[in-house]
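# nightly structure sweep
# worker-07 picked up a monomer target from the shared queue
# config: single-sequence mode, recycle default, output format = structure tokens
# input follows
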Amino acid sequence: MQQNQLKGPLYVVPKKSFILRFIYNQFLIILGSVLAAFGYVVFQVPFQIAAGGVSGLAIIINEYTGLTVGMLYLILNIPLLVLGYYQLGGLKFLLSTINSVVVFSLASDVFVRILPLYMKVYPISQDLLLNCIYAGVSVGLGAGIIYRAGGSMGGTSIPARILQKHTGFPLSQSFLYTDIIVIVLAGFVFSWEKSMLALLTLLLCGMASDFVLEGVSQVRIAWIITDNPKVMSRTLMTELQRGVSMWQMTGAYSDTERTMLYCTVRRSQVSDLKFLVSSIDPKAFLVIGTAQQAWGGTGFTNLKSPSGR
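# output follows
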């Protein structure tokens, strides 16, 4: 829906709020990248668990070249960053993703050097299954923090997020589709046992990132009771590109008439929805529920399309 098709007042979020939110998100991206790099170096690299993606490909190439996994991760991400620039938000996406890619690369190489020196026991465990489980959880939590902040770890997470954007598939499924080739390659290079463990790590990573992104369903339903319905509805339609319905209601306790708004959004938009609602009307009453799928309407798959049948 084009902005010039909307009528009524529009709430303009102060530039200061956007700047502070951007800085906060970059901090989260750095935090998530460091956590993911720690899990990657401690649980994956020493045991050649190439759990898909560019990070897994870096482990495979490292076996033959001797180049550090962090440097390989950075180099391999360059063409994918170009793809993400055009598909996932332009400059804003690129800045957040470069932040994550650079921090993950540097942190990985730093951890590879210093952890064996400062940890009494490195690696922590020689059990492949334990390492694969904790790799999936730690890297997945870090990745989830990054995605929730609006960033990306780069690598095959870029085509995975593009797939999620256009199909609504959970990230766990999207990762599986985009990373399976690397896992199969790892089976030929290392062993099929490690390849099977890598697949388990990938699945756990996707589940952990889905958990951080707030649940496993694809969409969220929001009910908003506010005293500024026109400003709220137009702002949500403009900023989130989602349709909004409204109706009058009467509070049983206060016996006063209020307006309730109804809006369905992608789960990745929940943070933006909360931000906009609290900025427009701090006294608004917001309830967010879950839904498994959403078809038709503004911003969702058309019921007449092949994927909507």
